[in-house]
Amino acid sequence: MVAQAKAEYDFSISKVTTKRNYLKRNLELYANVIEEDNKIADRTIFEMCDMMCALDHKFKPKVNFARRKLGDETVAKNLDRVKQFDYDEMDMPMLEYWVSYYKFIFGIGLRVSDGYDKVSEKPRYKVMNPLSRVPDVGFDPNYGFRFEGFEMDVTA
Questions:
Q1: Could you report the average pLDDT of every consecutive run of 10 residues in the chain (156 residues)?
Q2: Cβ of 12: how many Cβ atoms within 10 Å?
Q3: Single pTM value for the model
Q4: Distance (Å, rounded) from C-alpha 129 to C-alpha 110?
């Protein structure tokens, strides 16, 4: 079983290596502009992606609770306050910015659940770099993914 998982993982890595190298090269071209005396630095694509992130965040639809019947205004307002408090506590604006950034640079933005903080009673999320993604190359739309993973460096 371990041998099969390792073989499928290696196969998935081999399938995404070319695309990863292409996207890394694009990122270098977009963001790491080397300024030379006889050339004009062109950061147009990077600036456009940054602007798209700002617009994506600015014009994101807002969800608010509404009253269902007479007298529910207080309940709806309290639910909105709790929602806003949780949104701010979990630092969601920063997470959403990075998901949008990766979406516009690489075509996909990934936010994954990282557990639950029992002290503050809120879920934890983190943004994953799409270049670290190891997809299931045997994906079948009828059955879904068999696995989905991320390459990570782990220290003991």
A1: 80 84 79 67 75 83 78 84 84 86 84 86 85 79 76 70
A2: 19
A3: 0.67
A4: 7
